User: What shape does this take?
Amino acid sequence: MDVAEKAPVEATFEPLVQIEMEMETFLSNWHHCDQLSTFIARIISHNRTDPVRHANFFSSALNELLEVSFRGGSPDGQIGCAVYRHGRTERVKLTFPCLSRQRQFFSEAVSNTRREDALTHYLDSISTGLTPSRDVVFLDLAINFDAQIRLENSAPPSITLVVDLPLEGVVS
Assistant: This one.
């Protein structure tokens, strides 16, 4: 008799907020990253143990993700950001159009967050006098926010980043 292995059951994340915007409009002003991240953070943080602290952490993390999409996105299509919650963890699903050459960058950057030497790579990147590369954003989220980051299948030319942020467990 064959014993089938059961796949781990993923936690159920409840939807909190979702926004969509034309990517061309989003790319028209760098400040949209900060404005959207602040707005969404205030909406989802109202019922947390320390709402101000939670909003600050969440806004910072989401702002970094939006800036990555700003730098790597294509003006054709829409950007969508959905936030979900399971217990102490917020899940961000960020979908945006990007060129095929950018898809490879995102795949490698996300993969680098799971490397054994991720912390060393992160520290080396931020200790140089050079501007940190875009992939350092993912390492920062994984190391400093204990984020779990993955790519979800989405129809080209879009890409979907899924980032789980256990912010209530972050020590300030």
Q: What stands out?
A: The mean pLDDT is 88. The CA atoms of residues 37 and 63 lie 5 Å apart.
